[in-house]
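B., you asked whether I could sanity-check this one before it goes into the benchmark set. Here's the sequence:
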Amino acid sequence: MKQNGAAVRVLIVQDEGLGPPALDRILGPMQRDLVRVESVPEARELMRSSTFDLIVADSGRIRGVLDALFAFVGLFSLGGVVLDANEAPLVASGLPRDQVIGRRFVDLPWFEHSAVERARITAAITAAGHGESVRLETQIWSTRGELRWIDASFLPLRDQAGAITHVVGSGVDITPRKRAQDALAASEARLAEAQRVAQIGSWEWTVAEDRVRWSDQLYDIYGLAKTAFVPTYEGFLTRVVPEDVEHTRAVIGAALKSISPFVYDHRIRRPDGSVRMLHTRGEVIAGADGKAARLVGSCWDVTDRWQATSELERSVSTLTAILEATADGILVGDQMGKVAAVNRRFLAMWRLPSDIGPAARFASSPKACGTSWSSPTASWPRSPSCMATSTARGSTSSDSETAASSSGTRCPKEWAM
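And here's what the prediction gave me:
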């Protein structure tokens, strides 16, 4: 206490530190003469020429900085008691400061929802108190009635002698990021399932780095395990059957040059020796320099369709060979008046143009042939004038087709095409 009612002269040094100044608690209502400096060196210089009754450190500046952060910052005792905190966690949780300071961190309402999370946080603070740096993702229960994800870390705070005196905790609310990740994971799962059902795989090729990414389904289509094959452009070509490599190079090369979409089919050979037919569609994405930077696309396993088409082509080829090998003239037509099949022998016998073939239309009543052709289905009534000297040996396999054969009767060329 100063005599004669003189004011207590106080030197306040702007320095780091957490917590409000204890000036009011120390001096009470005493009159004060406050002198402020911005740094310790400035304070030392001033003390050479002046005397002060009390020297305190003002944490107002660092407090303002901490409270402006969106991150959660707290100072804990080694036992996990909250000694101080910035405004961010208080605002986010809706808890007043006096319900947080002085309580064990894990006893706060944030962790009431989970004994597991309380144990994890307790272990993290204990580890930091022993000199470890700990980082983990945890969930807290907001007073607004929702769980929030926090990316938290706990670090030891040491004094000038190196002894650990406190634990500093910090955290960032990553709930939006976690929700976006969950939504992305769900979307990718749906895409993977759709690709599996449709037998479609997707791919992406970064040209400059020759880095290729395949979807899981594309690995399945190729019959390859991720651990056994690292996709590259040349590696992909080794899976293409040799007869299709040149065409594949040409299609992709042209797309790279013209920066244009491309579509083509090619065959691949699996490690077990089986061959699959893929229908590929791709898009070329240009970089800032206008050159091809990336290719993205998809491959559809159309092996079943390809095999069915090949089998159908073989059947048609066989039937065509049989039709041409017979000595009879054969015409197969439908009720719509279109030619389904005709052999050259029939065209020669009836002296018809050689360009008459499947899908050609013919008159139901050629003038010179009487009224019409003979039809077992009664769709074409019998023509006495055309069939008089011919042997009808046609038959139908359904109500929509009629087969007729001739031993050589001549019929004029009045055909409607």
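One thing to flag: The radius of gyration is 44 Å. Otherwise nothing jumped out at me.
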